[in-house]
Amino acid sequence: MQQRIVTLALWQQENRLLLAMKKRGFGQGLWNGFGGKLQPGETAAAAAEREMAEESGLANIQLQPAGQLNFFTPGGEDLHIICQLFRIAGAAGEPTETVEMRPAWFTLSIIPYDLMWPDDRYWLPQFLLGYNIEASFWFGKDNTVLRHEVTACGSSNTAILPAERLAIVVRAIPLGRVLTYGQVAALAGIASPRQVGSLLHANSQPENVACHRVVNAAGQLAQQFAFGGLSGQTQRLTAEGADVRGGRIDLTTVQWCPKVEHDAG
After folding, report:
1. Which residue among 8, 44, 80, 122 is least packed, with the fewest CB closer than 10 Å?
2. Could you tell me the pTM of the whole model?
C-alpha cells in the first residue's frame, strides 16, 4: 500500500474557527483548514507552518501537535494518506486571501459542514471541544464515508460551557439524520440526556443549531418542542426527508452513528 504524508492545521480562538475556501486544485470549492504535502527533507511541523504562511499570510505561527487522521481511498485501501493534525496556538498578522485560499472565521455554531470534506463531521466536533484526535476513514468512490474509527484523546476544554458543547455537536448532524439525547450527551460531554433536553429547549439559534434533529432513545419527538411543539419538529424533519409517523421516527433508517471513543490516558 502506498503512503502519503500531509498536514492539516486549524486555528480556534474561543468560540470561532478559521477555515479557508479552496480556490483551485484538490478540494476546490470546499472549506478546510490549512496544509498540504511535505517537501523533501521537511518535517510535518515545518510543512504545516510553511503551508499555513503561504495560504493565509500569517507569520510567527505557533503549532501544537493534535493527532493524526488516516484516510484510505477507494479500491481496497491501496492508498493510505497520513494527515498530521496541528492546533495553532497563535500567529502574527491577519488572515488574507491568497491565490489558493480564501480564509474566513466561523463561529462554532455555524461551521459549514455541508461544504466540507465528509469526514469532518465525525472528528472536528471533538477537536473543537479540545481533544486530540486519532482517527481513520475509509471512503467510497463518491467520497462517502464507508467506515470510520475516531478516538478523542486526553481531556476536553473545561472552559466550554454546556450550551456551547451542545451547539458544537448538534451542528454536525447531517441533513435528514438524527441523534438521540443520550448520544449528544456522550459526544458533547454533557452530564445527562435530561440536561441535553433542557439545553435544546433553551436553544437561541435553531436556524444554526438544528435541535429538531435530536430525539429520544425510542425515536420519539418532543411534545414540548420549543419551536412549534410536536408539529413544528415533525414539519422540520419531514422537510428533510425523514418519515415521521405518530410522533415517532424510525431510528434504524435515520439515526446517525458517529463512532467516537474517549481515551483520557
Report:
1. 80
2. 0.95
